[in-house]
Amino acid sequence: MAAVRLATERYTETTPERASNYARLFLIGVILVFVALGTVIAIKTPAYESSDEPGHVQNIETLVSGHWYGMRCTFGIPHVVFKCSGNEAHQAPLYYLLFAGWQRLVGLPARAPYVEQLNLVENEGIFLTHSSADLRFLLWLRLPNILLGACTVLFTYFAVRLVSSNPWTPVVGASMVAFLPRFVFLSSFVTNDNLVNLLGAVLTVASLRYAQAPSRWRMAAVGAVVGMLLITKLSALPIALVLVVLAFMVTGWKRRAEYLGIGVLSTLVISGWYLVQNTVRYGDPLARRASAGYLSLIGGLGTPFGQPYKAGNPLSLIFVRVPVRILDSFWYQSDWHLFQWSWPVNLIFSLVLAGALAGLFRRHIDRKTLVTLLAIVFAAFLSIWFVAFQTATYQARLAFVGLAALAVLAALGLERWRLPVRFLLPAMGLIGTLIAIQQDVLAIHWS
Length: 447
Known about the structure:
Layout: H1 2-13, H2 16-44, H3 53-64, H4 78-85, H5 94-106, E1 118-121, E2 125-128, H6 132-163, H7 169-178, H8 181-186, H9 193-212, H10 216-230, H11 241-247, H12 253-282, H13 288-298, H14 314-329, E3 333-334, E4 339-340, H15 343-358, H16 367-388, H17 403-413, H18 419-422, H19 424-442
Antiparallel strand pairs: 1-2, 3-4
Helix pairs in contact: 1-2, 2-6, 2-7, 2-19, 3-5, 6-7, 6-9, 6-17, 7-17, 7-19, 9-10, 9-16, 10-12, 11-12, 11-16, 15-17, 16-17
């Protein structure tokens, strides 16, 4: 907070141009701190001690070895299926293709799938059996994920800068993302969520540019980003609703239909090949039935091996279980969901965010800008309910595709407050991240 106070004093005493320079320097500091935090987590956390990391790595290694991954095994023995295809074989391919290319570029040979072995550590918990050789290899994949997170922070800054002339508001929004503990830990490991988060931030920038001056090319750009999201993670499908909202920002039904058609066509140009591939291999574009059967066999639905998932009472799921899960897992969660905060801590963070968003009611924000941001956030959180009807393993991180848009709204809501107050939530997040690293990374006797 001392740094924030110093920046405030300089901001109030200097010209707008110099204030902008100070804000950019502060942004560089935020990104460097984020990278440092992520690097410590990546280096100090043993190999595969993160949710589903072995499955994500297996998809990459399958591609590096010259094969296409997929849900090929149909044996009835769960452990045989797990070893054959991994627990992420149902995922879309863009993230894995990029990292397979990276691994080929740095000259790392493909590695055999990791075979999980549990290790009971007295007074600590049950962890995986760790290998220093596995960690040395895995760092080549973990560290680029931190770069994806840093780019997400940067694009959040760009998004806020499109809608605010205040030099510090974009830095506030970027800091909210950079110091969200769940985001920091997620960015430190191998998971396709990190590319989804980055593309969500890029989508926010592209959508805001369209909202400011609708055009066919800008709608095509939005559609292309939506297409990349679909070939990264199909749970992001609800974000396509943004295309409909943006199409209604032009006048006349004919133009709206034209713009919507351009957006959808652009999405299909990017993602169509993958949807066709799913149809050929699994019988439908989203491979929902094949995924449900496959994940059921390996226990990937949060149910016993071989048992299908039943959502149960839909009203309870919609209004109770999903909101409670969001509260429990939005702010912080690490390892294989072993470490997380108590509900009072999560509630305090949520109330501070709600207070920031409440500031929007006192602001005169361009209607198209506000509608665009709200549409992205709504569609992002809708993806949690979308997944919750298919598996019990849904988490709040699914909504991070809209994290940049949420940060833009919160930063705008705080714009009238004094600068130190505007950095309250990022400061809380930074302190929480440091405590989590100390308690759940550095203080753990992993083996």
